[in-house]
Amino acid sequence: MATRRCSSPWRLKVSSSEERITDNRAANVADSVMYREALAAAAEARGWSVHWYHRERVFHDAAAALSGKDVDAFLHALGRSIGPPWQAKHKLAAAAALAAGACSVARAPYIF
Q1: Up-side HSE of residue 74: CA atoms within 13 Å toward CB?
Q2: Does 112 reside within a domain?
């Protein structure tokens, strides 16, 4: 399983727990972080590999997994073969899976 690295809600410009609760963006980020952490914990409890990725690096890492081939062309062809809907979030998930799969083959952790 590949999941995006969690951004800390404490990096937001709110200084207290009360502000985090009332600040809509901070609450949404905290919900997202808790969801990903719970999903990762459940996957690990089942014995599944969990690979965290950086959204900014995942396409670069996917290209490395393809031995430097054009990852955009690969993902475009993949999307055409799968058919609609093929959106940016699907490309991101496919890139994360490629990068995580390469790490699993190499037996190296992909956690940052």
Answers
A1: 16
A2: no
Q: Is residue 54 part of a domain?
A: yes
Taking a C-beta distance cutoff of 8 angstroms, is the pair 2, 96 a contact? Answer: yes
Q: Residue 96 in contact with residue 53, Cβ under 8 Å?
A: yes
- Helices marked H in the chain — which ranges? 17-22, 24-45, 58-65, 71-82, 88-106
- 20-53 residue pLDDT tens: 667 777 777 777 888 888 899 999 999 988 888 8
Into how many domains does the chain fold? 1
Phi-psi region of 83 (alpha: psi -120 to 50; beta: other; left: phi over 0): left
Q: Is residue 76 part of a domain?
A: yes
Boundaries of domain holding 55: 2-106
Is 96 within the bounds of a domain?
Answer: yes
pLDDT digits (tens, 9 = 90+) for 55-85: 889 999 999 999 988 999 999 999 999 999 9
Both structure tokens of 16: 């207290």
